[in-house]
Specification:
The structure is a homotetramer of 133-residue chains. By secondary structure, the first copy, chain A, is an alpha+beta fold. Chain A contains three helices and five strands, in the order βααββββα.
Chain lengths: 133, 133, 133, 133
């Protein structure tokens, strides 16, 4: 099965005074890829927030920063989801420079489905569970 | 009358690969000062959003970047509000390095009071109009 | 002459608690478009920083926020440059929702060419002046 | 021994469209606390970058998001460092709402000392090793 991947370009906004991407900003790249994976399956987070009234909340993240990304770099951000019980999804993710094999950054992200009003855990939408299983 | 001022420290998150504060991030400093000015008068934006149900939306901004701020700089961010009709506030703002006289950045910001649901213009809360007049 | 335009997608990172794009974050979209315009002409900002040793610094910006962008919006960010003396470029820019005619945000941005070491004004690279004139 | 702690206030810039702090932005709060811990010991990161010519680079981070922070929240960000070999520091960190006992967010952060030019690992400055041991 082909791994989902989404491109990202490094702009000034992403860098810090050390000349490399600021460590928190890789998390923005990681989320873009998860959002685009959902979108590629036809899910709109805004539509899910209205019906059935759920949001996705990051519960935990573990990130390894191996080599830095720099201004103008073309990145690929992968996203390999697996279901984790009925309320959470685990994502294995990597950030690579385009056409390179060794990732700059790897991450394990656990995302829970929560009620849009109460923020309490909710069962993942069936349509999404079907895709993941 | 003493001008309202709020301190800000420059951290890695604020800088970019040029070694200076990224141009969009000065707008975060400007907003912190406006928010703290409101708070100093006893207004909570979250309370106003519930009752009478209004938010503040930036309508326009003009910024002059004269000299850059750098990592670790201690800044002072001033905020001089004046009422502009019944629905808007104009803020003259400056960002200075602490203990310096010449501003690094100056800004004119126009903020409108809008309905929290419809985002349409709404009259400023009376208590705030009283303070401004 | 066709106006340069670059797409941007609104992600969670761009929004704030009001459910709309945070006012400073539109400046990131504006800069991406200016950077991509330069790149489309074959200029690399990293190469220019080494030889002839220049950076581009935003000197002033005026932004009108007309209507807000929201999560998942597909935006187009235009960029119309004109030379301003020998050391600066003026950009007229707009942010539009894709397939709409009325801009959400319009901006006038003045960018100066500065020495990468001293941050003092420097003449624009000839190759860039030739393109702009 | 008293745990180092640094306050942070949640502003609009930190929130996202879900009405809570965006998950990447907690990493900014964490870094501010680490920077202020260093500063409290008399170390300037800018001075260290010049002499002996070292920077600190985050190597890995593990974050647990337990409960969200919201607009206007007053936070305390703790920072408990321990030396990890000769080139790295481990930080146990928590983000709490002021006057609460249960953390909103906990994090383990590993930071390496690297050469400011080559980005290769370098021994921690002796003065810092002395403090940590």
């Amino acid at each position: 099965m082909k791994v989902f991947s989404w491109p990202a370009r490094v702009y000034w906004e992403d860098t810090d005074g050390g000349g490399i991407v600021y460590y928190a900003n890789y998390l923005r790249f990681l989320e873009r890829s998860r959002t685009e994976w959902l979108r590629s399956l036809g899910f709109s987070q805004q539509a899910l927030a209205r019906e059935p009234g759920v949001l996705f909340a990051v519960v935990s993240i573990a990130v390894e920063y191996r080599r830095p990304a720099r201004l103008d770099d073309e990145l690929e951000v992968t996203c390999e989801p697996s279901v984790d019980g009925m309320v959470a999804i685990r994502f294995g993710q990597s950030i690579l420079r385009a056409h390179e094999e060794k990732p700059l950054v790897t991450a394990q992200v656990r995302v829970a489905c929560v009620d849009a009003q109460t923020m309490r855990p909710r069962k993942l939408p069936d349509a999404l569970l079907n895709v993941l299983q």
